[in-house]
Design the sequence.
């Protein structure tokens, strides 16, 4: 793919698709888990923990959907 100059456009497309999928998925996951600005103000450490967990879950889903298949 490098010699045919198709690798980098392909990688850019996968990166774009992954970012778009994350941008759609993460807010939905946050809403389902009850992660709000109110929680952020009331208990910032819990908010950070939940956000880290949700982000890791979303990244794993995206990797499974776009990369590993």
Sequence:
């Amino acid at each position: 793919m490098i010699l045919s100059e198709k690798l980098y456009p392909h990688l850019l497309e996968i990166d774009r698709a992954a970012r778009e999928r994350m941008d759609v998925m993460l807010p939905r996951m946050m809403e389902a888990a009850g992660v709000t600005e109110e929680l952020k103000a009331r208990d910032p450490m819990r908010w950070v923990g939940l956000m880290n967990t949700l982000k890791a879950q979303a990244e794993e889903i995206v990797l499974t959907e776009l990369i590993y298949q």
Remarks:
- The chain has one domain: 7-67.
- The mean pLDDT is 94.
- The longest helix spans residues 7-33.
